[in-house]
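queue> pop job 88
queue> type: inverse folding (structure -> sequence)
queue> payload:
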């Protein structure tokens, strides 16, 4: 009986190819199948770009498995497409091949791998699953801003930014530091809220942090009418 391969979730960092762990590098070298999120329009994600820097698929001993994930809220389409995607990975695992799924940031933090893992556990519970931590974007931003996120007894909140202004106000009010993820879609509202709370000078914004396309702003007033990338976050540090 063929031994079932292991599914690895590899965090490869927020964009800088050097922000990858030694363990993730080793597994990229050793694993015969590298799975990655594939964009429909052909452009490469950071995870794909980083993985390609550390493997040589042309040598013939490595398969690069691009996986397209559905961008919809329709539950029937989501279930069907996710099951199809997981079955593509299962085909390799059932042949005894290990599969390394590369993901930006950390595999257990707002990652595509989380759903991959859950569906795989439901459909094929016999598959061994191992995750390797990676550097998350908010940690890259803290380094870029040279800003301690938390010290001593300070409390930190990591909040997906939404249009619920009062919930965003409460998040700021109840934490010493708040990281707003995916903030671009509500940036004018958040900036207005910071002005109301006299905290606009305590905020900084980064988009595609640590990557070659990185942009940072320490005066967020400049962004009240800006249209920024989906991969944008804001750090608000009150002290």
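queue> result:
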């Amino acid at each position: 009986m063929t031994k079932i391969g292991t599914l690895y979730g590899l965090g490869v960092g927020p964009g800088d190819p050097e922000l990858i762990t030694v363990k993730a590098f080793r597994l990229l070298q050793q694993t015969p199948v590298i799975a990655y999120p594939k964009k429909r329009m052909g452009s490469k994600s950071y995870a794909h770009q980083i993985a390609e820097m550390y493997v040589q698929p042309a040598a013939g001993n490595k398969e690069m498995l691009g996986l397209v994930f559905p961008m919809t809220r329709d539950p029937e389409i989501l279930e069907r497409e996710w099951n199809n995607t997981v079955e593509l990975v299962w085909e390799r695992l059932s042949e005894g091949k290990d599969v390394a799924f590369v993901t930006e940031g950390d595999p257990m933090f707002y990652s595509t791998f989380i759903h991959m893992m859950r569906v795989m556990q439901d459909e094929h519970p016999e598959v061994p699953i191992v995750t390797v931590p990676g550097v998350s974007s908010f940690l890259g931003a803290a380094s870029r801003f040279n800003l301690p996120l938390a010290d001593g007894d300070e409390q930190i909140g990591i909040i997906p930014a939404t249009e619920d202004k009062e919930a965003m106000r409460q998040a700021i009010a109840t934490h010493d530091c708040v990281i707003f993820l995916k903030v671009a879609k509500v940036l004018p509202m958040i900036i207005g809220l910071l002005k109301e709370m006299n905290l606009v000078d305590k905020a900084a914004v980064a988009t595609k942090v640590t990557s070659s396309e990185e942009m940072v702003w320490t005066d967020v007033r400049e962004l009240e009418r800006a249209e920024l990338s989906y991969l944008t976050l804001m750090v608000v540090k009150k002290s």
